[in-house]
Write a structure and sequence with these properties.
Layout (H helix, E strand, L loop, with lengths): L2 H12 L3 H17 L3 E2 L2 E2 L7 E3 L1 H25 L3 H7 L3 H7 L12 E8 L2 E8 L6 H12 L2 H6 L3 E4 L4 H14 L12 E4 L7 H13 L4 E4 L5 E3 L2 E4 L2 E3 L1 E4 L3 H6 L5 H8 L4 E3 L5 H4 L2 H7 L9 H10 L3 E3 L4 E4 L2 E4 H7 L4 E5 L9 E2 L5 H11 L4 E5 L5 E7 L3 E15 L2 E10 L11 E3 L1 E6 L1
């Protein structure tokens, strides 16, 4: 946390008149709405300050994420040879079917997003969105809107404030993957792109932002519901539009639930007649049990000494919930007994959900409810994870005057390969920081005094 920059920014807000702040907030919200920075009908933020990272913090983030990316690739490689790794990841039958399909390129996660907190004990990662992370376009648009704030312009007279623009990195990653797909035997040099998800998702406005950006850079782009697609003559189409590259935003779980309705997309992918990013193989790394694989000493042999140090420092202790004995920081424990007696230091999560669904936060749950949740977890695939110190900062907004509120900050870096390209930065008044669950957002800037 860049405390000096935060204090200076908040002092600038306090020095503004009531009418000036009121007008600034009104214009801020209007610009967010005009530029489609909304989740369904809800604007993504009302808070008047971005998060600030120092240059040194950014160097740390890049170093750690590079190592974790390499570690994750090793888990992917181990999956196809190690029966225990397969069992721990626990793909469903349908997910196994999709994972068995060769996508035509080697990269496992062209685009991904880690969820992290940078609290009192440093940088801790709690989840990995390896499948089809949202927020890239929203981040770019919000960065532009924040830069237009009068208080931000005053702030930059003393501090450098460097935003991240992520859509460029996403487009580069899509094109790089496409050009390497099927060994450079792609049907055309510049692909026709389809952004594919259900037509009624609340992130549809982000698809429109991405479509506009892609088309500005010369790529024909449509937004398509997977049920609208046809496949004939080795070409995937929506109407007359031939699709070369699918930017997949539809979740694997939901795709499988409607499998009978999405056969054209599946068959084109199976035949390698469309490049799909991310591929369905990313599901194996999207499972929360991946953190159990990383943090379990039984798997230490897969990783170098340096990688193990990064895992120990930045990945919290995580285990699949079962009636077994395991290690907890060098001590052998009875897992179920330990979970039952230590709820205030633990979280339990379903192995495969999103938006905070099903998460049970031990320190915010009664013992009785906790015991029931642990019992239910044994009937399916769930993980337990050690509590990490949450990061909190004070953010300002206008509501009957200038208000300041301490909020939890979930700092989620976007990765394209090993490159950290920016952040989805989520804010919340509760321990569950998730836009889907009702949380808000801001953007992250690199800041240093001029």
């Amino acid at each position: 946390m860049n405390k000096t920059a935060i204090e200076y920014y908040n002092d600038l807000l306090r020095a503004m008149s009531t009418s000036e702040i009121e007008g600034m907030q009104e214009n801020f919200l209007a610009n967010l709405s005009l530029r489609k920075a909304s989740y369904g009908d809800r604007l993504l933020t009302r808070y008047l300050r971005p998060k600030f990272l120092t240059i040194e913090q950014m160097k740390t983030m890049r170093r750690v994420c590079t190592t974790l990316r390499n570690v994750i690739v090793k888990v992917k490689d181990a999956y196809f040879d190690d029966m225990q790794i397969q069992a721990d990841i626990a793909l469903t039958e349908g997910e196994q079917m999709l994972a068995a399909i060769e996508p035509g390129f080697s990269r496992i996660c062209v685009t991904s997003r880690w969820d992290s907190f940078w609290g009192e004990q440093g940088l801790k990662f709690v989840e990995l969105n390896a499948e089809c992370p949202a927020g890239v376009a929203y981040t770019d648009i919000m960065s532009q809107v924040y830069q237009d704030l009068p208080v931000m312009r005053r702030f930059t007279e003393k501090y450098r404030a460097e935003p991240f623009y992520v859509r460029e990195m996403l487009l580069d990653a899509l094109l790089f993957t496409y050009l390497n797909w099927q060994g450079n035997k792609s049907p055309r040099a510049v692909p026709n792109i389809a952004i594919v998800d259900w037509e009624d998702v609340p992130t549809y406005s982000e698809f429109e932002l991405l479509q506009t950006y892609f088309e500005f850079h010369g790529l024909n782009t449509i937004i398509a519901d997977p049920r609208e697609l046809d496949y004939s003559g080795s070409r995937l189409r929506k109407g007359d539009f031939e699709i070369d590259l699918v930017y997949r935003r539809v979740l694997t779980q939901e795709f499988l639930e409607k499998l009978d309705e999405v056969q054209p997309m599946l068959q084109a992918y199976r035949d390698r007649n469309v490049c799909m990013v991310n591929s369905f193989r990313t599901k194996m790394l999207h499972k929360k049990s991946v953190f159990a694989i990383l943090s379990d000493s039984r798997n230490a042999g897969y990783f170098s000494a340096g990688e193990r140090r990064v895992i120990d420092a930045h990945i919290p202790w995580t285990r699949l919930i079962s009636d077994c004995k395991t290690d907890f920081h060098g001590e052998t424990i009875d897992l179920l007994n330990y979970i039952s007696r230590n709820r205030e230091n633990l979280v339990i999560k379903p192995n495969d959900e999103y938006g905070g669904k099903g998460v049970v936060i031990g320190w915010e749950t009664s013992q009785e409810a906790w015991e029931k949740a642990v019992q239910s977890a044994q009937d399916d695939v769930w993980v337990v994870q050690e509590k990490v110190p949450l990061a909190k900062e004070v953010f300002a907004y206008y509501e009957d005057g200038l208000q300041f509120k301490e909020l939890l900050v979930d700092l989620d870096p976007f990765l394209f390969g090993v490159n950290v390209a920016g952040f989805l930065t989520r804010l919340s008044t509760s321990s569950l920081a998730n836009v889907t669950a009702g949380g808000g957002a801001t953007v992250t800037f690199i800041s240093e005094e001029v």
